[in-house]
UniProtKB/TrEMBL annotation, chain A:
InterPro entries: BUG, Bug_dom1, TAT_signal. The keyword Signal applies. Belongs to the UPF0065 (bug) family. The keyword Cytoplasm does not apply. Transmembrane segments: none annotated. It comes from Ancylobacter mangrovi. Gene3D superfamilies: Bordetella uptake gene, domain 1, Periplasmic binding protein-like II. This is Tripartite tricarboxylate transporter substrate-binding protein. Residues 1-33 form the signal peptide. PROSITE patterns: TAT. Keywords: Signal. It comes from the Bacteria.
UniProtKB/TrEMBL annotation, chain B:
The lineage of its organism: Bacteria, Pseudomonadati, Pseudomonadota, Alphaproteobacteria, Hyphomicrobiales. This is Tripartite tricarboxylate transporter permease. Residues 19-442 form the DUF112 domain. Keywords: Membrane, Transmembrane, Transmembrane helix. The chain crosses the membrane at residues 12-32, 44-68, 108-131, 143-162, 168-187, 199-219, 259-284, 320-341, 361-381, 388-408, 414-431, 438-455, 467-488.
């Protein structure tokens, strides 16, 4: 099914034009003169819902990237089946011409790839060309919860099954919690809510004991919540997280970092056929990280600057493969198959 | 969360200084609300370059105006053409369209606009003064309670199909089956997708809405020369300002009805994940339950328009409360608003009401002003808009098919959705021709997936213990209310029969 031009794209082009009009000077003349590519707007596919963490991060990044790339960005959203729908649409229905990019999150989406029956292959069909942040998994509880520390939660989990909300089962935080349960003997049940918003809401309103999710999406909740632990070897934002201790420091475990990396994916075929275009994408992408405007915009979009970190294609590939391996280990707990 | 009169006065002054913007926002909102396939969320996304570039007050006033107007606009096509502009307006078809066929389209439109305005204003006003209390509702309405609320809506299948219960139930279960297509809510395992990736996220509601209502209605329309009955046609030709005033009188003769059904909308709107469609169906079901003449529902009575429209618009305040008070969006439109507000550096959640209470309460003030503005802009138009039904069906039906197919395509941009819409159009047409109620199908499609998600979640939280459904005090109260709502009609009928026998 070819979707080269349709009403949706027409309307989105209109929005992009309006955006350009609303922000005069958004595209510098030097960027335009840099080459033929891109000579039309970039098409961004987001495999999660409008207004979600990825959407916000993508819009913040692309706003600055547009200056260096010399093109505007048009967005389409294909949530569903833990991100599978978006990836399937991207691989099977989007032309591999380097104009089509996918803005996703390596951790959750590679776990989804490894645990669901997908119709595409990594890295044969797509690769990540760069990532823009590292967002650690955390466990938090509502501020009025009786659990003051992660030890309290684990101790209670030895007496009864703890319930933790999550946006989707294939998620690094789910694996982190399952690894913690395995190491400590805690009993835990992950409850997927089909989105970050409902998952956070369930934990704040007391339907479940707590929430396992990424750190950045929870920061806006302020003093309604209390962070219990971080799934990394160091808490990168102690002031924002009531100095919650890293999980391995508390229990002496060796749970690997369970971080999400928001990243840009592209068709592998595009990398082979249009290396010059892909080079321009990666070169201009790196420039964004040194631009003070990006710091300002990213923080406005809710991502603390401490989390912003460029990762190249090789590091993305390494991370993707690590998550495939981790997902394989916990496959039986993440899928309906016994 | 303490409100002072000076804050409210400032917010009203601010909104009045932006009246021009509210007029633009509400006009766009009413148009997109009336068009199946278009809604507040995708319009706000399209206009992000504008809302991100302007001052946060301007952005917020514009978004809220557009949002509430989209709730109001959905009823226009429900009433005149039996085609709901969105899920929240689906229940309005039940009595709105029969009114239009009788030549009372203008009055029905006025009823819809007045009840939307009253419902929207009352709930926005209540939200301002009772925010700390009503926002606590979200703490008591979890998956278990949602299951019972959804069952209230689903029991409407039996009501709308009361003329032929067996066929009605078959239609309802067909809807539930269609609603079960897609990836499951826990493990994302695809079910009954026939290998189509386009169905992994479930059957798109808009394809069902347009197919079952618009396409099948257009096909049915072509069987006669006019949408109206002969008597209705005569009435409609003579319609003038008198009918508009008649509609206003009809509405205000039922002021309490408008108020209490809007409260149903407010309460349901606050529950995260619930929305206008469930609110409208539950309000219609409750309105019918407490009516002295339930048998008249579905034949074109004012209460049948008022209940879903008041609830649909009462829901608009409720939808935004979780976003403002907790900082978590309760629906897609709220999620998109979150992008804009976060970008402008607005801290949502409890801190909003400490750091910037004017903005928090200003949302509801904007709603009140927007509803007041809409009443003045829409009421004079009813006289002209209602004449749409006078267009011969040979012209009207092809236009409906063409426009609504664009609406079916727009949200996701799949050709697949066009074919799916046509398939549902044929299903809807066959249902109509063979006496299977299409509203029953739609109730199943809309509420089925929500019911399944909440049942599965409640069971998973409890460790697969079915007794979880009777474990919460609020849930148990709702169960009793549900049982009463199922038994009261039979009991009332039995009493009426007994009284009739005694007097005979």
């Amino acid at each position: 099914m070819k979707l080269s031009l349709n009403r949706r794209h027409f309307m989105l082009s209109g929005a992009a034009a309006l955006g350009a009009a609303a922000s005069p000077g958004l595209l510098s003349s030097s960027a335009r003169a840099a080459g033929d590519f891109p000579d039309k707007p970039m098409q961004v596919l987001v495999p999660t819902g409008e207004g979600g963490g990825v959407d916000q991060a993508a819009r913040a990044f692309d706003r600055v990237w547009a200056k260096y790339l010399g093109a505007n960005f048009e967005y389409s959203y294909f949530p569903g089946a833990s991100g599978q729908v978006g990836y399937e649409v991207f691989i099977s229905k989007r032309e591999p011409n380097a104009y089509n990019i996918l803005f996703g999150n390596i951790g959750p989406e590679m776990i989804m790839y490894a645990t669901q029956n997908v119709h595409y292959k990594y890295p044969e069909d797509f690769v990540y060309i760069g990532s823009m942040d590292v967002d650690d998994s955390v466990i938090w509880v509502a501020a009025d919860s009786k659990f003051k520390t992660i030890q309290d939660l684990v101790e209670e989990g030895k007496k009864r099954e703890i319930t933790l909300s999550t946006s989707r089962l294939p998620h690094p935080s789910t694996i982190g919690v399952l690894a913690l349960a395995e190491a400590t003997g805690m009993k835990v049940r992950m409850i997927p809510y089909g989105g970050g918003g409902p998952a956070r809401s369930a934990a704040i309103t007391g339907e479940v004991d707590g929430c396992a999710t990424f750190l950045s999406t929870s920061l806006g909740l302020g003093d309604q919540i209390r962070f219990l632990t971080v799934f990394n070897n160091k808490n990168s934002a102690p002031k924002l997280t009531n100095d919650a201790p890293p999980v391995n420091q508390v229990f002496g475990t060796k749970i690997p970092p369970m971080s999400g990396q928001r990243a840009i994916a592209i068709h592998t075929k595009a990398v082979k056929e249009y290396p010059d275009r892909v080079k321009k994408l990666t070169d201009t992408m790196q420039k964004v990280f040194t631009d003070p405007e990006y710091k300002e915009i990213a923080e406005k979009a809710g991502t603390p600057w401490e989390f912003i970190q460029y990762g190249d294609a090789a590091s993305c590939d390494e991370s993707a493969k690590e998550f495939i391996a981790l997902a394989g280990r916990y496959r039986s707990l993440l899928t309906a198959s016994k | 969360m303490h409100i002072s009169m000076s804050i409210l006065a400032d917010q009203f002054a601010l909104n009045f200084s932006y009246l021009w913007l509210i007029v633009i926002g509400t006009t766009i909102g009413i148009i997109i609300g009336a068009m199946p396939g278009f809604g507040a969320a995708n319009t706000i996304i399209l206009l992000l370059p504008f809302t991100l570039a302007v001052h946060v007050d301007v952005a917020l006033i514009f978004m809220i105006s557009l949002f509430v107007a989209s709730h109001m606009g959905g009823g226009i096509t429900s009433i005149l053409l039996n085609i709901p502009g969105n899920g929240g307006a689906a229940a309005t078809c039940l009595d709105g369209y029969p009114m239009a066929r009788k030549g009372l389209g203008q009055q029905a439109l006025v009823l819809s606009f007045v009840s939307s305005t009253v419902g929207g204003m009352v709930t926005a006003g209540l939200s301002i003064f009772l925010l700390p209390y009503i926002s606590r509702l979200a703490y008591y309405m979890h998956s278990v309670e949602m299951v019972v609320v959804l069952l209230f809506g689903i029991t409407l299948i039996a009501s709308v199909a009361s003329d032929n219960m067996l066929k009605g139930l078959i239609a309802g279960f067909l809807g539930l089956l269609i609603g079960a297509i897609g990836a499951d809510h826990i493990y994302s395992t695809p079910r009954a997708t026939f290998g189509f990736i386009e169905l992994y996220d479930g059957v798109p509601l808009i394809a069902v809405l347009i197919g079952v209502f618009a396409i099948s209605e257009a096909l049915t329309m072509m069987e006669s020369s006019s949408v109206l009955s002969d008597k209705g046609r005569e009435l409609m030709k003579q319609a003038g300002w008198k009918e508009t005033w008649e509609g206003v009188q009809m509405a205000f003769a039922r002021t309490w009805h408008m108020i209490w059904t809007s409260l149903v909308g407010l309460v349901i709107g606050i529950i995260p994940g619930a929305g206008a469609s469930i609110a409208a169906f539950v309000a219609y079901q409750q309105s019918r339950l407490f009516s002295k003449t339930p048998e008249k529902y579905g034949t074109g009575i004012p209460e049948g328009v008022i209940a879903p429209e008041s609830a649909n618009n009462g829901c608009s305040s409720g939808d935004l409360i979780p976003l403002l008070v907790i900082g978590v969006p309760g629906g897609t439109t709220a999620a998109v608003m979150l992008i804009v507000l976060t970008y402008h550096g607005v801290q949502l959640g409890p801190r909003l009401f400490i750091q910037n209470p004017g903005m928090g309460y200003g949302v509801f003030v904007t709603m009140m002003v927007a509803y007041a503005v809409m009443l003045f802009t829409t009421l004079p138009l009813t006289r002209y808009v209602s004449r749409l039904v006078l267009i011969p069906t040979t012209v009207l039906a092809p236009i409906i098919i063409a426009f609504t197919l664009v609406g079916a395509f727009a949200p996701r941009g799949y050709m697949f959705d066009l074919w799916l819409t046509l398939v549902f159009g044929v299903i809807g047409y066959l249902c109509r021709r063979t006496g299977y109620n299409v509203v029953a199908v739609l109730i199943g499609v809309i509420l089925g997936p929500m019911l399944e998600a909440n049942v599965m979640r409640a069971l998973r939280i409890s460790g697969d213990d079915p007794l979880v459904f009777f474990s919460s005090p609020v849930g148990n109260v709702l169960w009793v209310a549900l049982a009463c709502s199922l038994l009261i009609p039979s009991f009332a009928k039995w009493r009426r029969n007994r009284a009739a026998l005694a007097s005979a």
